[in-house]
Design goal:
With 264 residues, the protein is an all-alpha fold. The protein contains eleven helices and no strands. The longest helix is centred in the first third of the chain and has 35 residues. The radius of gyration is 18 Å and the shape is globular. It starts with a helix and ends with a helix.
């Protein structure tokens, strides 16, 4: 893989990790469509660390606040929790299902789940589910309306993103909308959930890391920059508009993949 290919894939990773259109699906489809060599799991790990850096850089104040609040709950046992303390536990609840699923299905994620046909199907199906959630969810709740059960529900949706094409951000935002959150709050909680689950997954997958190279560094940097832009863009976009453009993108991408498969 050359530097140009690495930068393109890094940009793709940063954008699609946070926009609800599936980063894992795009990282498989882009090399497949362009006839590029498979970058391998080691390169994927580096790109995911890039988006982890992006989300920590954007939300570092929130993470520090929730980290402190989490440990303070053990000191204040028996008293009511404030919003920061509740949010810290919601992030734990939302991370557990994906962590368990990732450990149990790690081998399938590396092989059986990388089929272009499967990606095309999940892109379309979960795009339609996002449309239903965006069209019919109440969209009235904010972070203060989260509960442990809602966070666990969103976490279960995050676990589905082990299948390429589902989209981690798409599934968690969809679940957030179904749970009654407004678009911005659903997106923000989705982004915050990325931190702990990506950190854990990155540590587990570190065995696939093959060493530092110039293309790898270029891809990592591109993922950081595009990831920061995608977070800022989507939070601003959802304050004014709906998810519909992403639904249409998913459907069109699915149709394109199926057309290419048929023509081949």
């Amino acid at each position: 893989m050359n530097i140009f290919q690495a930068v393109i894939l890094g940009l793709v990773q940063g954008l699609t990790e946070f926009l609800p259109i599936s980063s894992s699906g795009h990282l498989i489809l882009v090399p497949y469509i362009l006839h590029w060599p498979d970058p391998g799991l080691g390169f994927d790990v580096a790109l995911h660390w890039g988006t982890l850096v992006a989300v920590i850089a954007y939300f570092w104040r929130d993470y520090l606040r929730y980290f402190s609040a989490f440990f303070s709950t053990f000191i204040q046992i028996g008293r009511g929790m404030n919003l920061d303390q509740k949010m810290s536990w919601y992030l734990v609840a939302g991370s557990v299902p994906a962590a368990i699923t990732g450990v149990l299905l790690e081998k399938q994620a590396e092989s059986a789940f990388r089929s272009p046909v499967l990606i095309a199907a999940t892109m379309a199906i979960f795009g339609l589910i996002l449309w239903v959630a965006d069209s019919y969810g109440s969209k009235k709740g904010g972070e203060h309306d989260l509960s442990f059960s809602k966070a666990l529900f969103i976490g279960c949706a995050q676990a589905l993103a082990l299948i390429p094409g589902v989209s981690r951000s798409g599934s968690t935002m969809t679940a957030g909308l179904f749970a009654g959150l407004n678009r911005e709050s659903a997106a923000r909680f989705s982004f915050l959930l990325l931190g702990p689950i990506s950190f854990g997954a990155g540590l587990v997958a570190f065995k696939n890391f093959t060493g530092i190279s110039t293309p790898l560094v270029a891809g990592f940097a591109a993922a950081v920059v595009s990831g920061l832009w995608a977070i800022s863009f989507l939070l601003d976009y959802l304050s004014r508009k709906s998810f519909r453009v992403f639904v249409w993108y998913r459907l069109l991408a699915s149709a394109l993949v199926l057309a290419l498969l048929i023509l081949r």
